[in-house]
Amino acid sequence: MTTLSLLILLSAGFATGVTAVAAAFVRTRPQLADIVGDSTPARGPARFAFLTAPLADLEVVQRAPESFMLQRIVFAAIGALWVPLLAIVLAFGEVAPPVALTGVLSLATAVIGWMLPAVNLKSKVARARTELRGALACYCRLVALGRAGDRGPVEALRYPASLGDGWTFRRIRDAMDEAALLGDMPWDGLQRLGAATGVRELGDLTHVVASAGHDGASIVTSLRAKADSIEQQLSAERKTGAAVRSDRMDLPLALLGLAFVVFLAFPGVATMLTT
């Protein structure tokens, strides 16, 4: 078997294997019987946990797990195929790399391709959660104003959500609308939204509002304190992020300085080694 044929079989077999294994463990849509019976969909084996999609993160950006897994499969397949294809091109010039080296590099680039969507998703989710928490601070102040104006707990929650046009207020509004369709209170919908998106401040808000709805307690001060707490935490995170970005700027300068030193020292070192 020629090197060219071996490289083609290697790339095709690896891409097919990655696609088949990942597709076998993609989270599928639940069946109607499972929903009616309130059963939990079966999960894949624990040894394949790395193939599961981060559901809370996907819920924040409103992306389907199937779409995310498909993107990972495509990126992994591209990573696995481009090295063998490059080796095939080099083979026509009679400079093909060893098959073992091609296989190792193909595996490495496939792993990198598999991880890239997860890294990109993590960045998007961090920004989305920050935006949601910032909007929640504003929402808390609006609810506090409603309660101070003698609005009931339900009306104080629902009316401010109708004022915003951004995706954050739309998610809050949709969560309460879904709760209304299920016959639940609005704060139950916010509780579910906080659990689904991993934004714990939503759960804290629901506890405050629910206590007012059941016990008649005044929550204006508590809501304003919660808004202040969220804003202070976001401010601290922004300062920390700015400090980290400032530290990262030192690395390119250090590398540039090192390259300049190597550039100056290379002629002398080369002369010493050749004499």
Give a structural overview.
This protein is mostly helical. Helices cover 79% and strands 0% of the residues. It has 11 helices and no strands. The chain has helices spanning 3-24, 32-36, 55-61, 65-92, 99-148, 153-161, 167-181, 186-197, 200-215, 220-248, 250-274. Helix 1 (3-24) packs parallel to helix 5, helix 4 runs antiparallel to helix 5 and helix 5 (99-148) packs across helix 6. The two termini are 48 Å apart.
Q: Largest sheet, described in full?
A: none
Strand count = 0
- Give the helix proportion (percent range): over 70%
Give me the Rg, rounded: 27 Å
InterPro entries: T2SS_GspF_dom (IPR018076)
Membrane topology: Multi-pass membrane protein
Keywords: Cell membrane, Membrane, Signal, Transmembrane, Transmembrane helix
Protein name: Type II secretion system F family protein
Q: What's a concise summary of this model?
A:
The protein is mainly alpha-helical and 275 residues long. About 6% of the residues have low confidence.
Give me some keywords for this one.
275 residues, mainly alpha
Provide the fold topology.
Layout: H1 3-24, H2 32-36, H3 55-61, H4 65-92, H5 99-148, H6 153-161, H7 167-181, H8 186-197, H9 200-215, H10 220-248, H11 250-274
Helix pairs in contact: 1-4, 1-5, 3-5, 4-5, 5-6, 5-10, 7-8, 8-9, 9-10
